[in-house]
Amino acid sequence: MAQAEYIGVKDIEGPFILVENVTGVGYGELVDIRDSAGARRHGQVKSLSEKATLVQVFTGTEDLVPSGTKVKFLGKPLEVHLSKYMLGRTFNGLGEPRDDCGALYGGKRVNINGLPLNPMARQYPRDFIHTGISAIDTLTTLIRGQKLPIFSGNGLPHNQLAVQIATQARVVGSDEFAVVFAGIGVKHDDAAYFMQELSTHGHSNNIVTFLNLADDPVIERIATPRMALSTAEYLAYELGMHVLVIMTDMTSYCEALRELGVAAGEVPSRKGYPAYLYSDLASLYERAGVVRGKEGSVTQIPILTMPNDDITHPIPDLTGFITEGQIVLSRELDAKNIYPPIDILTSLSRLMKDGIGKGYTREDHPSVSSQLFASYSRVQEVRSLAGVVGEDELSKTDKAFLSFGKVFEGKFLKQGNEEERDIAYSLDTAWEILGELPAGELTRVSMADIEAHIKKKEK
């Protein structure tokens, strides 16, 4: 049945057009819009009432004239074309190819507004995902089906870290692994960097990339993560793959929500963000998990830059409530030229304890990670003390902790942005570094492990 076309709109303001006396349309419905010259653009229904319908225009309302604008409601939501041939391809924020490789064929089209997983259908995540990064694999382990965000700041190397994880990640013991990489509001040079690195490193034929640029219309920014997650769900639950979704930068997404909320006249909440920011973020983050009876799984690493490095800002604050831990990047470590600059004392993975150890990584993993946390925490205390009394006044044990801290940062935390480390190598390196400390200070590991992994120093 052909859809009715409305000629002329009541008002145009910002990215919105107001159409009067519309019947038979639904919230989120896709809209076809033509200007007086016949040029076509798309929009989406954002608000409904008996008198008028508010439509958000994807590519902006420039050159639209109220009397000459034609609007057709298409009777379907915003959709993404899904196919197994998406692997290795690059798309824009609306799911249209941007790699000059032509349109997709086969597959199907689905509504991008998927639903969070039913808690009763979830299976508890346990399997370890290898990233090749010692600080993550050993101390903030990523588990298949987990939501583990990275909290960064402007100028910190989160883009390099995102690419390194995307190209190195894999589920140990499974070849059915894919990465969906979503760049949200990224600058042109960052987009070029992502395309170059993702195509030349790792298994590029297993990566699907969505790139929304900073100068693209704001409304596209809202669609990009949903496009990526719909793709991940298709690959996971219909093709049986284990999918890692990396989304950067979620702060750009939240800024777009705020901008559109102000334009629509919504009442703002904390720092001007809409009051529904928590539920909106939850609708994205909760589309990850392991579903009982399904072969595949969806794991998420959302990356966000904290405004003014403020971890209490609404975006990281609400993200921390929804997700299962966080990886925090340190400006202090970055200033020391340590990459990746992961602050392990403020980072944690809440699902780590059930996905490491015997049968998952290695039997000594839980005790080693606990000892590293405890020892590095002591390093910070000793450094503070040394800043007051001077290093010469420290005890022999305190000096040993200072030495441990330098070796730990320089040899364990620091690694190349193309260096991939096996979990066994990371754990062996951890034991080697713990050998810098007196055996009496290793209170989180057993004597049997000390004898097995730390060579006795010659007196």
Q: What is the element layout, followed by pairings?
A:
Elements: E1 5-7, E2 11-13, E3 16-20, E4 29-34, E5 40-48, E6 52-57, E7 70-77, E8 79-82, E9 90-92, E10 108-111, E11 122-123, E12 129-130, H1 134-139, E13 150-152, H2 158-168, E14 170-171, E15 177-186, H3 188-200, E16 207-213, H4 218-237, E17 242-248, H5 250-263, H6 277-285, E18 289-291, E19 297-305, H7 314-322, E20 325-328, H8 331-335, E21 348-349, H9 365-389, H10 396-413, H11 423-434, H12 447-453
Parallel strand pairs: 9-16, 13-19, 13-20, 15-16, 15-17, 17-19
Antiparallel strand pairs: 1-7, 2-3, 3-6, 4-5, 4-7, 5-6, 8-10, 11-18, 12-14, 18-19, 20-21
Helix pairs in contact: 2-3, 4-5, 6-7, 9-10, 9-11, 10-11
